[in-house]
User: Which sequence fits this backbone?
């Protein structure tokens, strides 16, 4: 399983001089459809939309339902919910049991 860790680049780029955020469609996922990584990718962009609206990441993924997500996302293989955490300014989103990426 590939570990996927995202930080909110939207927050970082929004505060950089000369960077203008456009209301564009999110990028297309390169992950195979229906995989946990594809679901994490899609959920990441839902969190980014939430941040654009309220200026901070959600406390939990429950905050995205029903406006941004129809239901809470889960790993299609195990059925376990995605792992999500936030410190109020950044967030991490992973497939269940994935090891965070090292930097």
Assistant:
């Amino acid at each position: 399983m590939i570990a996927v860790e995202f930080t909110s680049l939207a927050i970082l780029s929004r505060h950089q001089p000369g960077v203008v955020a456009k209301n564009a469609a999110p990028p297309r996922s390169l992950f195979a459809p229906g995989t946990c990584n594809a679901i994490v990718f899609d959920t990441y962009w839902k969190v980014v939309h939430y941040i654009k609206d309220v200026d901070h990441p959600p406390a939990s993924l429950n905050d995205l339902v029903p406006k941004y997500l129809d239901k809470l996302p889960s790993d299609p293989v195990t059925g376990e919910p995605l792992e999500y955490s936030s410190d109020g300014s950044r967030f991490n989103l992973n497939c269940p049991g994935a090891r965070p990426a090292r930097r």
